[in-house]
Amino acid sequence: MKQRPxxxxxxxxxxxxxxxxxIWWGVVGLVTIESMGFALLAAAYFYLxxxxxxxxxxxxxxxxxxxxxxxLLVLLASSFCMHEAAKAAKRAELGRILRWLIATAGLGYVFxxxxxxxxxxxxxxxxxxxxxxIVWVIVGIHTLHILTSAxxxxxxxxxxxxxxxxxKHLTDVATNEVYWxxxxxxxxxxxxxxxxxxxxxxP
Amino acid sequence: MSPKxxxxxAEPETPEADLLDEVHHRLEGxxxxxxxxxxxxxxxxxxxxxxxxxxxxxxxxxxxxIEALLMRIQLSRPENGLLSPDLYNQLFTMHGTTMMFxxxxxxxxxxxxxxxxxxxxxxxxAFPRLINYSYWIYLIGGLLLYSGFFLSMAPDAGWFSYxxxxxxxxxxxxxxDVWAQMxxxxxxxxxxxxxxxxxxxxxxRAPGMSLNRMPLFVWTQLITSLMVVFAMPAVMVSSSLxxxxxxxxxxxxxxxxxxxxxxxxxxxxxxxxxxVYIIFLPATGFVSAIIVPxxxxxxxxxxxxxxxxxxxxxxxxxxxxHHMFAxxxxxxxxxxxxAASIMIAIPSGVQIFCxxxxxxxxRIRFRTPMLFVLGFIAIFVAGGLTGVMLAAVPLDLQVxxxxxxxxxxxxxxxxxxxxxxxxxxxxxxPKMTGRMMSERAGKWSFWLLFAGFNLxxxxxxxxxxxxxxxxxxxxxxxxxxxxxxxxxxxxxxVLTAGVVVFILNALWSLRHGAIAGxxxxxxxTLEWETSSPPPSYGFLYLPTVHGRHPLWMPRENQPVVxxxxxxxxxxxxxxxxxxxxxxxxxxxxxxxxxxxxALVTGFTFITVIFTPWALPWGIVLxxxxxxxxxxxxxxxxxxxxxxxx
Lengths: 203, 645
What we know:
The structure holds 2 protein chains of 2 kinds. Chain A is mostly helical. Chain A has 5 helices and 2 strands. Chain A has helices at residues 22-50, 65-90, 94-120, 130-162, 167-201, and strands at 4-8, 165-166. In chain A, helix 1 runs antiparallel to helix 4, helix 2 (65-90) runs antiparallel to helix 3 and helix 4 packs antiparallel against helix 5. Chain B is mainly alpha-helical. A two-stranded antiparallel sheet of chain B has the order 2-3. In chain B, strands 4-5 form a two-stranded antiparallel sheet. In chain B, a hairpin with a 6-residue loop joins strand 4 and strand 5. In chain B, helix 7 runs antiparallel to helix 8 and helix 12 runs parallel beside helix 15. The longest helix of chain B is centred in the N-terminal third of the chain and has 35 residues, at 85-119. Chains A and B meet through strand 1, helix 1, helix 4, strand 2 and helix 5 of A and strand 1, helix 6, helix 7, helix 8 and strand 3 of B.
């Protein structure tokens, strides 16, 4: 009988990290889609602003900068914790993963409480005027992202406490870092656009 | 990957038939769908889901076609009383919405879902459960639109729902809300499908299939999916803002409170123009795939075609404003978007010339798929040229909102997308079903469609130049438009006959077509290597390739892949650029939860039309199926790091 050459792949690993893993590409795809959505909302904000005679409209009081800045710092700190969790995942240290995930989710929930105060201290609603509509929608959609993402972390925490933890969950946690950085860093941009710029750089 | 981990070795003997049989049975066991109705809802195999997509999309195509035919009959004589103005408004809105959102985009992606894994030599898509979810959410969106239609709640503000007509003041009731929610469904589906296709194409190509050896069809699917990722968020944002204006009193498009109606047009067309290329580029993939086997030669200018696709996808994002020339723009804006609109003819032209060069001097086999390709070239060139005309602002202003525009986009969409699509069905039907479609009926369907199409739409160019406006339910006899309208309606009937012959041919051939065999057209790409229809696991041994036409350049010592476990759903993941083996991945198996999640999402998006509280409730409800979807299952065969406490 004839011989047939083969490529034997049985020795190849089945858990990998970063751009080698298909799920990483999936998350990057999701982040791209949502970044596009955020970018278009920002574009809508500036389009409406371009047509306005006064921006923000008279009588608008935005949340105090101390509050919004604290919230931003909390979010950036949570990003650091998520990075540590992902690092632990790449070394398969289950205990460290759990601790850093709890820290990330905890800071996420703290941020959500601060976000509640942020909403409460706005002097306008989504139905007040177009400015109110675009600001509420941007802040609201971002809040939704933090909320769902924090709940996702919580589910991971339950999984890592209860088991069964599989090898692929290491990749999942490591990949989750990408998404969490996206939701926290995108707020850096909107913080500047919505809260810092309109009052801060202009007298 | 360390090079050592892949061993190229010689199997001692060609495997015996009974060994192959054993491998087959083990793979069948691992890739078998679950039984019963629940199993049917839990299906994840890309071939099965893609077939559901294709059949559903063709049903919507038929519905959209019936709506078009009703409008044509209404316009066949002046002051016809067949349709009321209100019903006519609903019909043209339903027709456009159906054809764009429920037919054209889904079916182009569905063909990709079926063929891409086979063409790149893998067993399954990267995210099979997501595709199942994608199908159900698409179906629910379509059912919502048509339930609305039968409850007299069909949208009636045009497929692009311009504000202020579609706003809360001029469109009270729920009609436009149904439209806005349907958008969300189909776009979620389209985005999920696109990401899955991108990841599958980047990561699961057969060893050796570097990017520059990828079939052009796969290139078009990749580039189209990337366009979807960047374009579709725009329509989701715009339809959500519209829904909020209507449901919770925001003021995005309300000039009275600082909003802006033109903002809607920008957001919508930022999606809407790339959408045209999202429909057209996959069709060029069909053409490139069909033209090769029927001329028996490699495609001319592979690199030029790939670069044209990339160029089209970029320029496609820079010309949305040519839909808005009549809104009053600064001159620089007009010039920029005119230039971009004319420029996009260059990459399209490059592709056309590459196909002509491939045909030139070749021994063309005039089988049905090839006829559709040739018909495509003729019609698309005619449509594309009027596109160049429309890019000029003075001409555009003259014929804006007339039948000239209707003729133009039907030439490019039917000629540019539907003709290649039907050609593709004739071409790949044997692969999907194992049987050939009738050649005789095929030729009939082609000539009826070709003649009917031109009879229907060519007169519309002239009608547009004579000033007949779009979206008006009737006209006066004195306007002098009667004869051409009658001709167009007659053409519409011939066109319908062509579609009917095509559908009957497909249905008849399912049972009675000649047995096809693995590769009836003697084509060159990997999907023709496996049996027709393909087994549940795709390939017995994953292939490797060493060129662009793997089946035309077989080598004695071309290796196959061994070492994937055949008792679970394992796929080989390769490097993004050069497709060298990297690792083994396990893809998800059947699960009912994507279906349940689709039901919850559907419930949420539909109830939100009636109360905003549906949104928080829906999000809470969605947690359950999401957790169940991702919760580890013991039957996946993964390594456990920590046992269940």
